[in-house]
Amino acid sequence: MTQTQEETAPPGVAATVGVPVEEPARPDRIRRPSDAIRFAASVAGLVGIMLLVSFAQQTTHGLQTDIAEGTAHAPRFLLTLATLVSSFGVLAVPVAFAVERLFHKDGVRVAIALLAAVIAFVLTILLDDLVVPAAPGGVLDSLIWGGTDTAPVHTDITPVIAFVTAVGMAGRSRWQAVTWTMIGLAALTGLTAATASVAALAATYCLGSAIGHGTLYAVGTPNPRPPGTAVLAALERLGLRPTRGRQVPGAADDPRHYTVATAHSPGDAPADATGRPLPGGDWQLRVTVLDRDQQTAGLLYRVWRLVRLRGGSTRRALRSLRRSLEQESLMAYAMESAGVRTPRLVATCEVGTEAALLAYEHVPGRPLDAVRDAEITDELLEDVWQQLRRLQAARLAHRRLEGDAILVGDDGRVRVVDPRSGEIAAGDVALRIDLAQLLTTVALRVGPERAVRSAARVLGDGPLAGAVPLLQRVALSRSTRAAVRQDRELLPRIREQILRLKPETEAAPVRLERFRPRTILSIIALTVAAYIVVPQLSSVNLPTLISQAEWWWAAVGLAASAVTYLAAALMLMGFVPERLPLGRTVLVQLAASFVKLVAPAAVTGVALNTRYLQRSGVRPGPAVASVGASQLMGMVAHILLLIVFGFITGSTHNATKDLAPSRTVVIVLLGLAVLAGIALTIPKVRRFVAARLRGMFSGVVPRLVDVLQSPSKIVQGAGGTLLLTVGFIVCLDACIRAFGGSLPWTAVAVVFLTGNALGSAAPTPGGLGAVEGALTLALTISGLTADTATSAVLLFRLLTFWLPVLPGWAAFTYLQRKEAI
């Protein structure tokens, strides 16, 4: 599409009439990632306020009292004046701004903002007039302070906040200042008149902001990106006299790029890299356009890298448009000053209020990714490393040395481009990451041997040895990690080639990750567990329960818990054709109870049993298959028992109605089935699940065939599986009876099977937190009092999780000394 019309420019930006620009058609509306992120942040803030007023009512009320007492001493005249001004201005100023936008032909944005205001108004009326009276007490009432005239959210302010949020005042500082001053005065007068609370006002702001951003994202905001004609108009103001332009295709998340031809006279004709004048009409500029709405693209990924890596990520996850412009400009000038061959930065400027441009000299060429293998000569590779050496000597970290950041010009010389993520005065780790990144990039094209050999000729062996600890996938860019994932041997081969050059290298390992994803899951799960378990413990009268408990039932539970280790040993032995000693196999299961403290419950048994079988003479493949077979049969038995006991529980008159499969069990199972079915319709998810299942259970079927040929092994494996479940059910039932409770054994079975499934899926050590919460909730639903359910679960976990730790440690130490694991 070619644009020549002046009307294509955004408000406030003049276009260059008659200058053609080839670019794709611009969509009328776009969904900006920043709107979705701000909507989520506003909802999170609203949830945080609800939690705060639930747990810290005295604090919030005390703050309200302090504000009321402080404003009581303010002059009455000033308070009256503020009330009058805010009552009029809180509505008049947004209306005036809307009229101003209509004069500038920005009616679509005003319409979207009006829709957000209507939604906010209706929602606040429903909340204040219907929801609160229908549900007195609790969190909503905690937002109210000062009597019956107050409300949890405010109908007069919420629509205004939603309107202001949706209409967008970025770059219009005067309107922003006046509007938010009016909103602030309205909030202040509400506080002084005791018709609003601090918590209610905070909730009002978060709700209005959420509605505004949510409406923008749902409907789409008018496209604020200036078209190519506006970009050329900005170049015209800089005196570059563009004659035509063309947008270069690129990824959606990348900045837009244009090649631009400029007019010139023979005396001021620019020259190419060889010094020859460029004829008029050739592409002479490559213009990068930074759009304000794209600044948040990839924000979550950058935040994740910033938090997760130690000094290996950019310092700021979110930069303003001005900050991005300054950073790229500074890096471009620094690279040129350091002697790095890079396109010269000609000019920079803003394009209206929503974008900025950087104009570079245009260098004809191809990125390294597009160069044919036959054209990548040793001289070309040495030129690549020469540019890196200059970057490193000047302490400049590029941070994106991928194939598209290395430009091979038509003159055969290498240039480093795309300095948007660069950093000056970089630290040692950042420079070594650059080296590791470029090593990987080059190795992906020419192989590790040639990449390392060419780098050593230019950089020397010492710097390469320093990059060895940084050759980790987590240190590489996203696209490079995806490529390395396809060739898992690439990074080890690069390390091997470097160590061949310098065998005496003893580079200390560098830990780039602050934490692993599993650590985050464990922290979240433990926090949730504490939130669930601690309130339950605070409501339990432990001294009374302990004094009234029948402790001989606890002895029964302890015996049942001990039987489970024998059952687990029989279960494993039943799926191993080779002969295993019973005593040592039981010790291995006991040792697993110690390992549970540092790993999720679903991982410990598999890893330890596999290691034990290998030490017992079983080859690695059959060992993994045997453990996989036992786990598979255990899972099948678990599901079948849950269905059977759930059906029996739901059809038994004495069983609890709430835990019957007619509601809870069936809904959960159907819900999981539906979610699994939807997930498996996605090809990528389906391939991932298939690969994981093949890796986990490869060889399981042949192993089961071997077991089925021995009736004694079938009885041993099936009997161990059934005995394991019965032992835990008897233990839980004994713990319930120890505190005077009683439930049908079928209900106890359903409760245990459900809680154990959740514990196996939880990422916390031994299912800590998930098991306690699930069992306590299920027992309470089944008819036990909260005190009895909590006490029974704590005793059950004591017998099955905590007490075996010390014997498990002794067994683990003994087995290690005997080299059995």
What do these coordinates show?
The chain crosses the membrane at residues 36-57, 77-98, 110-127, 182-207, 520-539, 551-575, 587-608, 628-648, 660-682, 714-736, 743-762, 794-815. InterPro entries: Kinase-like_dom_sf, L-PG_synthase/AglD. Pfam families: LPG_synthase_TM (PF03706). It is a multi-pass membrane protein. This is Lysylphosphatidylglycerol synthase domain-containing protein. This protein has 821 residues and is of the alpha+beta class. It has 31 helices and 12 strands. The strands form 3 sheets. It has a 7-stranded mixed β-sheet, sandwiched between helices. Strand 11 (406-409) and strand 12 form a beta hairpin. The longest helix is centred in the last third of the chain and has 32 residues, at 620-651. It is flat. The N and C termini lie far apart (69 Å).
